[in-house]
Amino acid sequence: MILLVNGEKLEIVDGANILDVINCLENKSEFFAVALNKNFIPKSQYVKVQLKDNDQLEVVTPHPGG
What we know:
Layout: E1 2-5, E2 8-11, H1 18-24, E3 33-36, E4 39-41, E5 56-60
Parallel strand pairs: 1-5
Antiparallel strand pairs: 1-2, 3-4, 3-5
């Protein structure tokens, strides 16, 4: 299936969850938040939320210094 992750297309296996996508990304920061189709998802739900074709994920990390 194809997802849009931070504005870029990502092909991932059917049935993947948010944690599967996080593990594919190069961002290894321990501090980040994830929005699925513009709704923030709690970390406790990353394994439970199964993604669908054309879902949009935004993975954001804080940057010090505002």
